[in-house]
Amino acid sequence: MNDLVRPSRLAPGARVAVVAPSGPVAEERLQAGLDVLRGWDLDPVAAPHALDRHRTLGHLAGEDADRAADLQRAWCDPSVDAVMCARGGYGAQRVVDLLDWDAMRAAGPKVFIGFSDSTALQEAFAVRLGLVTLYGPVAAGVDFIKNARAQDHLRATLFAPETVRVLASTGTALAPGRARGVTLGGCLTLLATGYGTPHTRAGARGGLLLLEDVGEPPYRLDRALTQLLRTGWLDGVAGVALGSWEGCGPYEGLRPVLADRLGGLGVPVVEELGFGHCEGALTVPFGVSAELDADAGTLTLDAPALI
Q1: Is the pLDDT assigned to residue 1 strictly greater than 90?
Q2: Spatial separation of the C-alpha atoms in residues 4 and 125, rounded to whole Å
Q3: pTM of the model
């Protein structure tokens, strides 16, 4: 697995398009998120359909075609320097096939920020564009609006990425050792359900896999990990870093599942790296070479996430 293309870091005045490819967005939270971005001397603009609601499916932010058009228009707009998701939820898998990936590739690299359901898009950006993406807070997310740690880490990643090359765990090693590889991953259930599509990688061989999820009981996470094991998607993975498991039950009940399914890989596995659906979530890049030291509880990037 090779490094992907790193987009350019942001500078004051950079335009950030905020899109809603997944679940519906609350207007007051979107406005609060735009205010945070303005406070960073950025120029945020909400996509035309960012506050839409699907006609019949209440879990979607507008019609599939409109959500896809917002994302593609923002990406292909030469005045836009970064595209940030407004929230997660569900729906990104429904728009991936509607995007013109040739046109988006021709538009050149820029920063993409999202997490949770955005995993489906981040896999597609890796497969179709060969581009590094940022797995971090979303514009209308409570963590982004109210948590200084989440804000500060994302801001540093965007403006001074060389200052945030080491991520430290607050947990322990689920399996000891060191490993090197290229970062990838995201929300476990999105990776499992994306397997076999043209927009998800055929496997994690040679990669450092970062996994987290939300609202899934242990048996469902067991099922998702078993799916990745049975298909061979985890064959040759170099190491695993685990983030948050908010709403997945008490961690003492989930930890044995993670140990059972991942311990047999024979690679380092570190817990609680601080990314995902947790308070003060860190921003992690996908597509960058790094070293995982499970004993020290660190993930160290070889180079900054952005150039």
Answers
A1: no
A2: 10
A3: 0.98
Confidence check: pLDDT of 240 > 90: yes
Q: What is the pLDDT of residue 73?
A: 98
Backbone angles phi, psi at 200, to 5 degrees: -125, 140
Catalytic, 212? Answer yes
Catalytic residue among 212, 271, 272, 291: 212
Separation between Cα atoms, residue 36 and residue 151, nearest integer Å: 9
Compute the distance between CA of residue 274 and CA of residue 242 in angstroms, rounded to an integer: 8
pLDDT of residue 172: 87
pLDDT at 79: 98
- pLDDT(185) > 90: yes
Q: Which of the residues 22, 116, 118, 169 is marked catalytic?
A: 116
- Are 86 and 139 within 8 A, CB to CB? yes
Structural domains in the chain plus CATH codes: 15-162 (3.40.50.10740), 166-301 (3.50.30.60)
Q: What is the pLDDT of residue 173?
A: 95
Size of the chain in residues: 307
Predicted confidence (pLDDT) at residue 280 exceeds the cutoff of 90? yes
For the question of residue 118 being annotated catalytic, the response is no
Rounded Cα gap, residues 89 and 78, in angstroms: 28
Report the C-alpha gap between 305 and 136 in whole angstroms: 12
Distance, in Å, from the CA atom of 67 to the CA atom of 213, rounded to the nearest integer, reads 23
Active site (annotated) includes residue 169: no
Nearest to 98 by CA among 79, 120, 126: 120
